[in-house]
């Protein structure tokens, strides 16, 4: 009789463990991200930081109770990690290509302005300063440097027939631009300047202050993730964070 009770207790413990594991799997979200200050990067002490990190932490972990696991990769590998199920989510711009393997929410949690950069003493600098539309780059015969996996570029720049040069790492676009291996870069200034400084080419890069477009950033979750319903809750929490001033406070820190 005692042996039967011990067996039942053991079975009960195993069952509870399985239930707990299943619950944990449903509430854990593995986010893949590239090192890209001030969106997200790793400090010297190994702690992830950045305002995308802060937004996700506030919305998903603190307000929705989701356990987050952050893993850094080169950007193109971040997207591949969702396709193969290694990770669950990325924070980026929805595109038709990404819609094939992810789902997202309605309202962007952040809009990023995209400025036109060139290199110092470009022989056609005055013509570049007259650019107002992305198509003007094509009409002027200017090339653009970008990084592999830049979905926005693939949708809005390359189809126009604009000559493009790619690198596997975001920060390398600035080294290439400084070396005059292309005419321009289209990027968000607060994210660009830390990489420009890190590359040691600050005096060789020019931000024309011309805004060519804006990018709407969303949380994208792979289609086969068991809790895609988190997205509607995330959308509502983001709206609340904008209304109660939390979003403004987070952005002001960066």
What is the topological layout?
Elements (H helix, E strand, L loop, with lengths): L1 H26 E6 L7 E2 L5 E2 L1 H12 L4 E6 L2 H9 L5 E4 L9 E2 L6 E10 L5 H4 L5 H7 L3 E4 L3 H6 L7 E4 L4 H7 L5 E4 L1 H10 L6 E18 L7 H14 L2 H7 L2
Parallel strand pairs: 1-4, 8-9
Antiparallel strand pairs: 2-3, 5-11, 6-11, 7-10, 7-11
Query: Helical segment tally?
Result: 10
* Largest sheet entry: 5 strands, antiparallel
- Oligomer state of the chains in this structure: single chain
The CATH architecture assignment of the largest domain turns out to be: 3-Layer(aba) Sandwich
Q: Regarding CATH, which class of the largest domain?
A: Alpha Beta
Structural class designation: alpha+beta
The CATH superfamily title of the largest domain = Periplasmic binding protein-like II
Query: What is the radius of gyration?
Result: 22 Å
Q: How many strand segments?
A: 11
CATH fold group of the largest domain: D-Maltodextrin-Binding Protein, domain 2
Considering the chains and any ligands shown, give keywords for the structure.
globular, D-Maltodextrin-Binding Protein, domain 2, alpha+beta, 5-stranded antiparallel beta sheet, 2 domains, 254 residues, 24% strand, two-stranded parallel sheet, 40% helix
């Amino acid at each position: 009789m005692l042996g039967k009770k011990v067996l039942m207790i053991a079975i009960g413990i195993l069952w509870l463990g399985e239930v707990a594991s299943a619950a944990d799997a449903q509430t854990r979200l593995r986010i893949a991200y590239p090192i890209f200050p001030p969106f997200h990067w790793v400090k010297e002490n190994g702690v992830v930081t950045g305002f995308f990190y802060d937004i996700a932490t506030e919305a998903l972990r603190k307000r929705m109770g989701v356990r987050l696991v952050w893993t850094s990769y080169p950007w193109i590998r971040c997207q591949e990690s969702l396709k193969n199920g290694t990770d669950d989510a990325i924070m980026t711009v929805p595109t038709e290509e990404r819609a094939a393997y992810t789902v997202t929410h309605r309202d962007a949690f952040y809009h990023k302005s995209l400025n036109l950069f060139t290199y110092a003493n470009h022989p056609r600098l005055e013509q570049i300063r007259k650019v107002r539309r992305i198509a003007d780059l094509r009409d002027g015969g200017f090339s653009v440097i970008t990084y592999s996996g830049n979905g926005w570029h693939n949708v809005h720049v390359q189809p126009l027939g604009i000559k493009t040069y790619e690198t596997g790492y975001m920060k390398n676009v600035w080294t290439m631009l400084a070396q005059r291996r292309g005419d321009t870069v289209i990027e968000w200034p607060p994210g660009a300047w830390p990489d420009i400084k890190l590359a040691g080419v600050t005096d060789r890069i020019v931000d024309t202050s011309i805004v060519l477009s804006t990018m709407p950033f969303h949380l994208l979750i792979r289609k086969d993730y068991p809790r895609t319903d988190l997205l509607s809750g995330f959308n509502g929490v983001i709206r609340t964070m904008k209304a109660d001033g939390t979003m403004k406070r987070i952005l002001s820190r960066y």
